[in-house]
Amino acid sequence: QVQLVESGGGLVQAGGSLRLSCAPSGRTFSTYAMGWFRQAPGKEREFVAAFRWSSGRTNYADSVKDRFTISGDNAKTTVFLQMNSLKPEDTAVYYCAAKLSFSALYSSTYSSPGRYDYWGQGTQVTVSS
Question: Which residues pair with 5 in a beta bridge?
């Protein structure tokens, strides 16, 4: 069973920073791309950022562009989400997701939750005003 585990969430004041991590629990496995999504109470899950291991290419939601940075480690096992200049509207449960294999459609569908194969349980991020 493939499992992803997020960590690094917490409570922070507006303008502060947090760094989220996502790594497989148990056995490691190869993935084509990783994504971060978030879901606030009463709202649908929304795309935050995506990262491709082979090219290092990244994508961001407009709402987090220039504030958040997604990256992966050299071992290609852990993906990070550095979140700076946090705002109260960033408050949500943050989920990481893994896409196992290449798809030509991914370049246009990376923001769709349905494109990912495995998900973590989420980590809470709360930004106070």
Answer: 23
pLDDT in tens, 48-102: 999 999 999 999 999 999 999 999 998 888 999 999 999 999 999 999 999 998 8
Euclidean distance between CA atoms 108 and 33, whole angstroms: 13
List the beta strands (DSSP E) in the chain: 3-7, 10-13, 18-25, 33-39, 46-52, 58-60, 68-72, 79-83, 92-99, 118-119, 123-128
Going by C-alpha positions, the residue among 1, 34, 18 that lies closest to residue 123 is 18
Q: Tell me how far apart the alpha carbons of residues 89 and 76 are, in angstroms, rounded to a whole number.
A: 31
pLDDT bucket at 123, cuts 50 / 70 / 90: very high
How far is residue 101's CA from residue 106's CA, in Å, rounded to a whole number? 10
The token pair that represents 66 in the structure block: 């220039």
